[in-house]
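Quick question, first post here. What does this chain look like in 3D?
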Amino acid sequence: MSEPATLQSLALSLKNWGSRRAVGLRSDYGVRWWSYKRLYDNACRAAAMLRDRELLPGSRVVIWAANCPEWLAFLFGASICGLIVAPADADWPASQVAEFAKKCNASLLICGSNRDAASIPIQREYLFSFDSEAPLRPWNELVVPISDSDPAAILYTSGSSSEPRGVVLTHANLMFQATRFSYWKRVTRYIPVRLLALSPLSHIQGLLLSGIVPLSLGLTVIHSQSVAPRHLIRTIRSGGVLALSTVPRVLGLLEAALMSNAGPQTFGPLQRLVRLRRLLGWRFLILLIGGATLPKSREKFWRRAGCFLVQGYGSTETAAFVTVNRPFVGRFGSIGKPVHGGAIRISEDGEILVRGRHLAAGYYNNGDIQPLELTEDGYFRTGDLAAKDRRNRFFFLGRKRDLIVTGEGHNVNPRIVEAALGEAPGTRDSVVFGLNRNGFEEVHAVLLMRDGKSPAAAVRQANQRLLPFQRISGWTIWPNADFPRLVLGKIDRKRVVALATDSSAEPQNLRTEMGPVTLDAIRSEPNRHRRIEQLARYIATGREMPTPQTTELMRDFGLGSLDVLQLLLRLETEYNLALPASKSVEDVSIADLRCSAQADRNDAMLDGVAAAKWHHWIGWNPLRRLSRGLLARPYVKLRIRVQAVNRDLLLCLKPPVILAIQEMPRRHFMDYLAIYSSIPARISKKLFFGASLLGSDRREALWGGPRISPATFTQLFFPYTPLPRFGQTRQGLLQSCDWIDRGYSPILTWRPGAALIAAQTHTQVVPVHLSSSFFDLQKPGKPEITVSFGRPIIIPTDAHPFLLYHVVESRLKELQTNGGN
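> Answer (accepted):
Ran it through. Tokens below.
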């Protein structure tokens, strides 16, 4: 079968992978999955919605949303209709999205949840508005004929060194890059591979590495709502992730978190490797890095952690891939060898020149496409500098326009100076530029220092490694918690240089004193970065209960979504607090974070009872299946009579499903066994219990023999996840979602924690009513328990756990009122 030539043909090929998992969205606790068939079906439904809008082929459609399966459905749906996708960063404000839509003459805006799009004067469609259960239209009624030279997307560059421009990428540009990796199908056809992709789909790196390339290979892609290090480590370990696609900025946060958990530096290399692999999981092997250059020290760390690094170079104009560093034959600091043969060279002044089918069609300008400026022989000037060794390996040297020309006429590359500063202890990051003094440029550094470290000592050590004309003549201490950054974590050099050279800039070294912080003082703080610092300390160190004043939202403090993310990362890295990110950042209040921080401190205490260690041994699964058939079912028949009502409602369900039972003061383990004996085999063969102590921890005679704890007895037959404190503890929720991810169906007492599990994993809920608890049937003979099943509840894509809790609770009350009918 020929390789797809357009996004349209790629969309058609999705169904060939069938029920294999295509894309999932990882929230705080669980993953919401779409199979390849479901992605294809929903792409067709998205195409039908767009066709109903009567948009002409070639019309621009703006997608303003965070990474999620629906984003990809609309990408492929637009390609089916012959439309051009113009992605907008999820964190852009509405005013910037409106300006962006105007520049690209967009006809439709597709926005995600919690996006205030009312002020944007074009047609709007909600990302989650299509019905996943609606009948499909025939492909021939939806498809609009296109060619591979037609535009597929308009992506705006980050503008780190110049004004951002809309880059027009054709179907040939994108699919030509994807075909370079088609030989991996020989492996991925038979071996499923999970990729954790953190780059936004609105960027070329995310569009290719988080969408087009892995889906063309049949990979399983996981997107994450949070980049908090502990969240990512847990996702990598529990999700069976083989590869991670990210940027150096996020990789640095992961490294810091792993270093703090791996133990002291005195451990030997082998012992340290084992500790790191236990944290990450033994399946995790590959790192795909792009967007910025990875420091050598960080590259060494990950190689010593047993990972293979694949670092590449490219830009939006080159459709991402130009060079890739092979993991087995690469060299530290290299951005690799050319992907497309001789389509790259270095000019006399060291600039990277590129040509090939992957070059963009041009820049979008008022309805026209302005071609790229090429050399006489058809090469595109990237504006980046590089060196090449005798083995044709490239080494990135920085932006051409960032070169410093000193008063003596020497050319100084800022990256060389920044690398020397990076080796100096105490330096977190730096920006080096040419500062004009008396008409001449001198090497000046803006330093981001660790607390208590001397900048003078760092500069002195760096100068010892530099040539005389490269040495730093002056420096500025950056006063805030971090440099301003762009979408992929790259430093916004323009802003840093502008603030550092502005004579009216605020005084440096404005570190906030470590005294008590009040909300009034935080609110009156004029500097946004210091407000974030003070809020982090207020949330992490405050011990008193939240007050009504703390119900203020983050936007009341002048913070946007990126600022809240920076606040959460600061709490994660400096105060070791892993706060949930399931709530929209625009709706997070101080009280929410204070309560979450307090719960996180007491997490070990709240977890209460835990399943026995032997319970998680993988070898128990076949033993459980055997023991259920030989012991559990005969024991149920011996002790109770079970009558199932409306069991036929479960016959067509595909697991996993959540079996929700009403909450009672006490619940006996025989109640769970009664449900087990009433459900179809396709569900019961992969079942687990999520409960508290199954009534109590007292021992009782199970068949007239020895007395044993009900919880211990249940764990002999079923996976068991303790959910004390009304199912709200972090560990119980995480374990429950992990079992669901493996295809197991839980029996859960319906509490708010169960609603959170259902909403985050997008798992159907079946209300279950028991006529009475076994505790109430302690009488001679065999008591009878009636198990009644309600209609399965399909979870909406954007379901809110609070509303879902009340919907299922009302269904359970209806079953109870109607006697189970």
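The mean pLDDT is 79.
The two ends are 53 Å apart (CA to CA).
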